[in-house]
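User: My advisor asked me to double-check a structure prediction for Fibronectin type-III domain-containing protein before group meeting. I don't want to rely on an old file, so could you generate it fresh from this sequence?
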Amino acid sequence: MAQCFENTMDTLLTFESSYENYQSLYVPNDWTPKDPRKIWHIVYRVPQDQVANAAALALSRGAGLLELTDDDNPNPYDTLPNDAYMQAAIGAVVGGKPPINEPAEASGSQVAGVPNDAHVLSSDYTSVTLVWSPVSGALGYAVYRDGKQVLELPASMIRATVGMLDPGSVGLALEVRTVLSSGDGGASRLIPASTNSLPLDGSITNTSFIKNGNSVTYTADVLVPYAFVRLFIGIKQDAGPHGWPIDIPGVDNTGTSYIQVVNYLVEGNDFYSAMYKYTGSWEMKGKAGNAAWSWAPLGIAPQVQSGYTHTWTVPFEGTDALASNYVVQGQGYAPIENVFMGDKYFWNAGF
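Assistant: Sure, here is a fresh prediction for Fibronectin type-III domain-containing protein from the sequence you gave:
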């Protein structure tokens, strides 16, 4: 990472990959930060007996923040290491106490009523953006939602987005106060705001796919922020479906519940997106049971996001994937949402 990014963030994540890659493919920065806590490394697939070596490598590379786990892809962050592993990590750090300074005391006082021109610039399903004119002598600004402070900004920023709001919220009362070196609180100037309501088909809509030779392009509009937006693809199943089962909420008018069974996964973001094949042994036989989370990487499947629209370009060559059998899933931050397209199955003891 170039040194021009040094002051863009409190901490810069400059490595996130496996322990094998940390040993053989690591590319160092050509500059040294003023504070080692500026650099953060995440290393997964680290065996317990290699924790001390990984920590020593991080120290030699100037990383003041280090995250280690023995978990692996496709999601190395879904399981915590056991206590013995954590003790090994603690033992690998000299001193036992992180060098965290006491937070600086805030100076100045917040003055309500200024700026006097703060207003809503835009809003969507889960956020509202406010703008205002700079206030002479301002040390900073504070943004309030329904009487509670939610943001604190430096004087150089005259725009703020209040996020994590519920879709369809009405009657929101926002406020911007100015931090000045001295001054008494004025009268509050409340800014009414609201968010858009979701369409009837939910937070993920307009799903579609187009075949292009040996690849298939999928699109979906994702209207709220999710930590993960995943694309699952199934195959043409014989009797006794096998793969990764995803429960379909609710029941039909006969009280029957359904699942969709998928066999491929595409997960990632604009920077890197990979395709995986389910390698677990789950089959739809007898009673419902837990499925082994076991996926093998197949390679890159690019995806891009433009506004709300997510687009995946998935290579189908060499797979038995069925393009019309897919699920788009959003998970994390907002409540989980699945859009099911393709074959559904119900539990039957005859399978």
